[in-house]
Amino acid sequence: MILQCISLLLIAITIRPTIGAYQVGVGRADMTGPSAEITLMGYAKLDQKGCGIHLRQFARAYIFDDGTTRVLYVTADACMISHGLRTAVIEKLQEAYGQTYTYENFLLSGTHTHSAPGGFLMDVLYDITQLGFCKQTLDAYADGIFRAIKRAHENMVEARIFMNSAEVINANINRSPAAYEKNPEEERKKYQYNTDKTLRQLKIVAVSDDKPIGAINWYAVHAVSMNNTNCLVTSDNVGYASILLESEYNPESLPGQGSFVGAFASSNLGDVSPNLNGPICVNTGEPCDYETSTCNGENKYCIASGPGKDMFESEEVIAVRLFEKSKELLVNESSVEVTGPIKFVHQWVNMPEKTVDIQNANGSIETVHGCFPAMGYGFAAGTTDGPGEFDFRQASTTDNPFWNLVRDFIFPPEPEDIDCHYPKPILMNTGRLTVPYSWQPKIVSTQILLLGNFAIIGVPGEFTTMSGRRLRDTVKSAIISNGGDNTSEVVLAGLSNTYTSYIATYEEYQLQRYEAAATIFGPHTLQIYQAIYKELATALVKGTKIDAGPTPPDLSKLNLLSLVTPVIFDSAGWFWNFGDVVEQPPKSVKIGETVSAKFIAGHPRNDLLSEKTFLTVEKLVNNGNWTIVATDANYETRFRWTRTGLIKGASEAEIQWVVRDKVEPGTYRIRHFGNYKYILGGIYAYSGTSDSFTVVA
Ligand SMILES: *[C@@H]1O[C@H](CO)[C@@H](O)[C@H](O)[C@H]1NC(C)=O
Ligand SMILES: *[C@@H]1O[C@H](CO)[C@@H](O)[C@H](O)[C@H]1NC(C)=O
Ligand SMILES: *[C@@H]1O[C@H](CO)[C@@H](O)[C@H](O)[C@H]1NC(C)=O
Ligand SMILES: *[C@@H]1O[C@H](CO)[C@@H](O)[C@H](O)[C@H]1NC(C)=O
Ligand SMILES: *[C@@H]1O[C@H](CO)[C@@H](O)[C@H](O)[C@H]1NC(C)=O
């Protein structure tokens, strides 16, 4: 008996891993979608079409394995994640790695940039402003995300994980404070601010040399520093923060390269804006109406901006604030090591059918259920970050051919739906629509990944500040009360796996501002999620099995509607060749100036140049070689493409480079790379090179 005990003890000692020694893989890949003529996703503005690139989109993958269980977390520079996109990635993963990565252990989250191409959502409502489904976007995103995961998978090393957090006060504001104030006073008193200011970080350190190989930072803020007049593809404030952090740790690398992978990921950003100057009536300079965000009854003039002098500067200011705090935390000694087993839990839930018991304020128990998805009137008004997000007046005229194609399928809501969503006045009763196919998802993915004492809650939409706080509390207390680690921290991974618009609290819902009008499963949506995630957390800690739930429909197998037109052909005109420079840079530029060159171009959609670039800025080095100092993934460069209209199929690429402080004086040139589509068929690569110019101090 004693011997047995001793040998068991010995086994326990020998197999017990050294503190927090996990196998971790990190990987990053370019996932930039079609940068021209596809509507950017987020503001739902049909005419906000891509016209080039400011920052490339990246996917960042993190694999955690404790020797028996593996989880995969990916954050992607996309507006959100759709079930169709996650499925496309899973198909590639299963082809390569069998059942290693499944819906159960793979969490895919979007950063919520509003300046990246859409058309990958599949559900009709979310693809309308993109003129329907765009296969090129879906493929670019799925391929890029898969490549990031593959790199992480092939790079597993022994690593320790640390968690830490700090406040970033000056990087977000609440854009619906009137709704936030509907939450009970006692609850609001627990918090100093009406948004979450905490930046929560996981740091991954290789055991071999004790150096960081990656970090994930979660911070609640909409990636809408770039407003709805922007047409350049960009990962916006959080994407640029990632590039800054990666440049810090990969000092020799161009953006998107180097082994350190640093992410800024989305959280409970539903009612959170980066436009720190707040909204004003841009026509009069007066404050907007507090409850309705209107100016004399009109919403289109009430617009938030700042803190920079223009949107590019605002994007940078927010990015730098997040990056600086993250950098501090990476060297902060008060970080706590993540320890304990890795676990995951996942369940599909049909929200309109889900019933839960909730406790009313007077203590009585009531059984509630989710509603069929519907959007309220407040949704059409948009937000102060982008008024009129869904312009139905425009859409009901001939301006949107896709809308015209599908509008005949819209039916008025049934009395039961009106009751269920009350007090939301229903504008679009999407949940009952089955033609041509699903308009908004009914079955959602709910999921928790647990790294020892750190839980990542994957949520299928945009939780408001208070919704996120309540859900985190629910999960944390479920973990601890069921015997889980009492030092557990929880973070909310926003816009994960399925997209179902917003989740406001019951109290916020009563005011029907934008976030509430877009809470598609009705007033009790959050309470239903709290009940679901409580069950998930309990099952996770206790190790009990949980019902998998109903499988969502696979829309990708349908004949998806699309009015996205293909590139017909490109023309260089009679006297030019593709890549010819039609406007040379000046002979000499000073630091602080912007230099530009214009080239005869082909359509960027002919080849997305994944993991490559549409431009380079090159410096002449001593031995006569040119070395690349910037690509189209740099903040300092802009690649802008336009059809010139003079000759059919003709277009130009303008490449701009902002010559900033760190640039060394010397001789430089600008190059452009692209592909043109020949009128008789075939796609051919070309390149062009500007005259050289000098940069003087
Ligand atoms: C580490 O972070 C804590 C909390 O933010 C802060 O109080 C402390 O000053 C930081 N320490 C260092 C060395 O930066
Ligand atoms: C967007 O930002 C630009 C500045 O970069 C500003 O001129 C413009 O008015 C803004 N537009 C909207 C609709 O916010
Ligand atoms: C308690 O509150 C609920 C909803 O607010 C209401 O329907 C119910 O009648 C109340 N019960 C009592 C006993 O007052
Ligand atoms: C957490 O649990 C440990 C024992 O596992 C106990 O010593 C400690 O007091 C607990 N901490 C809190 C905050 O409950
Ligand atoms: C740069 O120049 C050296 C010496 O002239 C040459 O060996 C080398 O191949 C060049 N590198 C590139 C990238 O062209």
From TrEMBL:
One term of GO molecular function: N-acylsphingosine amidohydrolase activity
Active site annotation, chain numbering: S273 (nucleophile)
Naturally occurring in which organism (per UniProt): Hypothenemus hampei (Coffee berry borer)
Gene Ontology cellular component list: membrane
Cofactors required: Zn(2+)
Alphabetically ordered keywords of this record: Hydrolase, Lipid metabolism, Metal-binding, Signal, Sphingolipid metabolism, Zinc
Domain Neutral/alkaline non-lysosomal ceramidase N-terminal: residue ranges: 22-530
Sequence positions that bind Zn(2+): H112, H222, E462, Y502
Enzyme Commission identifier(s): 3.5.1.23
Catalytic activity: an N-acylsphing-4-enine + H2O = sphing-4-enine + a fatty acid
Family designation: Belongs to the neutral ceramidase family.
Name the UniProt record assigns to this protein: Neutral ceramidase
Cofactor binding note from Swiss-Prot or TrEMBL: Binds 1 zinc ion per subunit.
Signal peptide extent: 1-20
